[in-house]
Amino acid sequence: MNNLTTLFSINRVMGLMRKEFALIFRDRGTIAMLIILPIMLLIIFGFAIRLDPKHLPTSIINYDNSPLTRNFVTNLQASGYFQINDTSGNEQAAHKALAASKTSFVITIPANFTRKFIRGENPELLVELDATDPGSSASALSNIQPILTQAINEFSARGLNNPPLPQSRSVNLIIHRNYNESNRSEYNIVPGLIGVLLTLTLVMLTSSAITSEISVGTMEMLLTTPLKPVEIIVGKVLPYVVLGYVQLTSILIFGKLLINIPIEGSLWLLYLSAAPFIIANLMIGMIFSTIAKTPMQAMQLSIFFQLPSMFLTGYVFSFYGMPKWAQMIGFCLPMTYFTRITRGIMLKANHFSDIVPNVWPIVLIALVLVVITSKIFRRTLD
Fold this sequence. Notes:
alpha/beta, abc type-2 transporter like fold, 2 domains, 15 helices
């Protein structure tokens, strides 16, 4: 028994456990991971994410202003799946909004639609959707036919005398999945994956690398050199800018070789628009490096930033299907706009004028982060 006590002591184990718990509770980052991370995930998946998205922005081009078509548009809005934002009938503006990811659906009702229906000529109704937005179309699209049938039944009950037989009267619903006719999910995922990987690697690498230098004291050695604080920041950031472009290039090359991902637009425009996005992520990493005391804390902060960047920006789930408060958070994240840029250039052949509405918010966010980083980092170096 004495030999067993010598080999294994409960008191010694309990003492070590108390020491470990003390270290854990002193590490605020670990406590945050244990408490805040589950709460964040519960909020995102419980309140922000919608697998059945509603209130999707929709443009209506109605060349047949009749009681039937007006009732159909009213029923679309009342269903909750469609948010009718444009009824001007401007076809060019509607398709431009679809190309810029401002609209999810464009529904075109041709001229003489009601007359052809009454005559039993089976008129066509065109539904165009932005097929680059994953998960935003399935539920809403499946509800268009029932909504149309309801409008037809109401119109027939109110306004038709001696109508033709019901089976001889119908509407042909034409579906066009713009920019992804084959409806391949990888065409939606890979362009957005560029932003995900750049955010993950740049924020995490920058924050942990600089934190490591501060913790081991090499950052203090830099202060003894003639380098100014601004020169230290620029010298630290530029190598990661190069790494960001290397990663962007590798994704494009392997995406083309392995998946044959289409690149319809200009690569030069994609590389140019990636610059402010890369800088914004690097500045976030620099800010995390000054907040965190250890590389582990820097990595934990990166995870906290990565979660909303993946789920609240339209990469996986429909952006317009989220509640307004979640959209407001998404509007503050650079990846929301960069995902639209990559999909727009690669799948929609967007030109510079098409991506400007998504470029300038990233530039603004990057400038704000540069100012914040320069002040925080200068104070840290001083």
